[in-house]
Amino acid sequence: MWIKISFGVLLLLIINVAAVHAQAPSCSCGCIDPDATCPLDTWVIVLAAAAFIFATLKLYRKQSAQQQYAAGGRQD
Questions:
Q1: Backbone φ and ψ of 21, nearest 5°
Q2: Do 60 and 2 touch, CB atoms closer than 8 A?
Q3: Rounded to 10 degrees, what is the CA torsion of 58, 59, 63, 66?
Q4: pTM, to two decimals
Q5: Where are the alpha helices (DSSP H) in the chain?
Q6: What is the structure's pLDDT at 22?
Q7: CA distance 8 to 4
Q8: How far apart are CA 10 and CA 20, in angstroms?
Q9: 4 and 13 Cβ atoms separated by less than 8 Å
Q10: What distance, in Å, lies between the first and last C-alpha atoms of the chain?
């Protein structure tokens, strides 16, 4: 179940990023206008995806450890 939810959230994030990049900016990021929007750098997106994957794995391992402990099969 958590795989479907995490996949759905990740897919939603990717679609949002694609939608933002699909809009043509009025000028380049070096504009004098401070309200001009610049797309996110690729490495920022990679960092966010890595943090999401790390958190998902950490929570999964914590949940499985709690289930083993509750079942009486505690392993140290």
A1: -70, -20
A2: yes
A3: 60
A4: 0.46
A5: 2-22, 42-71
A6: 53
A7: 6
A8: 16
A9: no
A10: 27
